[in-house]
Amino acid sequence: MITPNKFFVTLLLVAPCLGGSALAAESEAAVVVELTQVPCQFLESEQGSNHGYRSSSIKDCEAINAKSGASRIEQAEALQLKPGKTIFRVTNKNVPYELGFWLRGEGIAGRVTLPSVSGGGLITGKTQDYVIDLKPGEYIYSCPLNPTPNYKLVVN
Length: 156
Description:
By secondary structure, this protein is α+β, with helices and mostly antiparallel strands. It has one domain (4-155): Sandwich (Immunoglobulin-like). Helices cover 15% and strands 38% of the residues. It has helices at residues 22-27, 58-75, and strands at residues 8-12, 30-38, 41-42, 79-81, 84-92, 99-105, 117-122, 127-134, 137-142, 151-155. The strands form two sheets. Strands 1, 2, 3, 5 and 8 form a five-stranded mixed sheet that branches. The protein has a five-stranded mixed sheet with strand order 4-10-9-6-7, with no helix packed on it. The longest helix is centred in the middle third of the chain and has 18 residues, at 58-75.
């Protein structure tokens, strides 16, 4: 089980000096989960192990994941988070094309009622935040532009 402290997780609070009370600041707390993308994988999702994959296009990652994706997912540990406001801070580290991030409820499309968040625009070296109010349940996250395995997230 991967708990938030195995990832880079911090809490952000609304400053009381901005017109909010300490209690309001506490209720506005958000967990920040930092994730780093390298070619064909998220580093933190695979215990920080950079497999050294090289990719100049989506097709490279599709071929790599066809060979190793299933075994890497078997070894990956699910990220465990509590319900509430969560910021996924995703960085493109040395992938030479635009990336994105996609978090969604695990299951069959149309039958999942969990919230989701997605977006692109992650050029090489860029970090971007994806904000979501997580509800209890099981999710998966990946990058469809830098095809990664579907990593698991459990919220309880």
